[in-house]
Write a structure and sequence with these properties.
single chain, Phosphorylase Kinase, domain 1, Aminoglycoside 3'-phosphotransferase, Chain: A, domain 2, 2 domains, two-stranded antiparallel ribbon, 10 strands, 17% strand
Length: 348
């Protein structure tokens, strides 16, 4: 389908807890408030490789009498120890990004929780995947807008909401212990590089020396303003549509810190560009980001957080066995060495 559905959904329903999965017809009838049998439903599986995702499906509902249609995405996320997914918790905070201008966020139409999964229903959007480097200024403005709006939202006086946000915080041990935030676990992957290659001699020891600086930057970041962070700025999570730049898939969402998403975007560009191209994109992005940053936030602190998160993400990606193997197969070890050297010179 080439365009977003132009039909208005009847109305969305409050989030609920069910003991069972129920049928598709019952799930959709509850979310949209119609009588079962009133609509014909066609379903298409969508691609997803996120952890704990059971499926992502596009449902088209066609009214049997009027022929009116509307489109919805259903995402099923399995639970661990009956704990609701972070993405479901984010979507329950519907007002956090209301009125956004630079990114459009598809409406959440309902969340159904069962003991084993979270079922999230959002409005279906479609469009062209953007060239992320070309829209660096717009991405910068969108990130600054998310930070400004969600920072106000997370400053709650409700103890229940405050506890939910505490559980979602990036600095909880159950997130920081993930391998992607502990790059030293990947250092043995460097053994796959050609033995005796002077370009990589002593590299593991040099990279290991980054660990104290990262720990200091982590401690400093923890004391800075909180906000929702998307953390996954790949082209697959954006669509250019008639309504604007659509941002989807909050599967990596956390309560992070101002600057983290800037680092996430730059790390995605660092993966995909050579060093000259990356320097150009970085300059354009940071110039617009600092300009768009809300006056309540300290710009040097936000940039420090961006560098911290960038370095964490980049080290994880470029030390993965898969990444090293890809650079070897493509005969681009000189570029890989350049990227390691850049990371080693990054000042936190």
């Amino acid at each position: 389908m080439d365009t977003e559905s132009k039909q208005q959904v009847p109305y969305s329903r409050e989030d609920v807890f069910w003991w069972g999965h129920a049928s598709l017809e019952k799930r959709l009838a509850h979310v949209f408030g119609y009588t079962p049998g009133e609509y014909h439903v066609s379903t298409q599986d969508l691609e997803s490789n996120a952890s704990f995702v059971n499926y992502v499906r596009h449902h088209r509902l066609t009214h049997l009498h009027s022929g009116d249609t509307f489109d919805v995405v259903e995402k099923s996320i399995r639970k661990v120890l009956f704990i609701s997914s972070l993405e479901a918790r984010f979507y329950r905070e519907r007002g956090a990004l209301a009125g956004s201008v630079h990114f459009q966020h598809p409406d959440c139409l309902g969340v159904i929780e069962t003991p084993w999964e979270s079922l999230i229903f959002t409005r279906f959007v479609h469009g062209q995947a953007p060239r992320m480097a070309r829209i660096a200024p717009q991405i910068a403005q969108g990130i600054a807008e998310i930070e400004e709006r969600s920072n106000r939202h997370v400053q709650t006086n409700s103890w229940r909401q405050g506890y939910r946000f505490w559980e979602m915080d990036f600095f909880r041990p159950w997130y920081l212990l993930r391998w992607r935030f502990n790059f030293v676990r990947y250092l043995p992957s460097l053994d796959a590089l050609p033995a005796g290659d002077a370009r990589f001699q002593g590299l593991a020891a040099r990279l290991r020396k980054l660990q104290p600086a990262l720990r200091r930057a982590q401690a400093q970041a923890n004391q800075t303003p909180r906000c929702f962070c998307h953390m996954d700025y790949l082209a697959k999570n954006f669509f250019v549509s008639p309504a604007g730049l659509q941002m989807i898939d909050w599967s990596e969402v956390k309560i992070g810190r101002v600057g983290f998403d800037a680092g996430a975007y730059l790390s995605a560009m660092f993966r995909q560009r050579d060093m000259v191209q990356f320097a150009k994109v970085r300059g354009e992005f940071l110039s617009r980001y600092v300009e768009a940053l809300d006056q309540r936030f300290d710009a040097p602190s936000a940039l420090r957080n961006a560098d911290y998160f960038f370095l964490q993400n980049a080290l994880w990606h470029f030390l993965r066995p898969k990444t090293i193997a890809e650079y070897q197969q493509r005969g681009k070890l000189d570029l890989l060495r350049e990227k390691y050297e850049y990371l080693l010179t990054l000042s936190l």
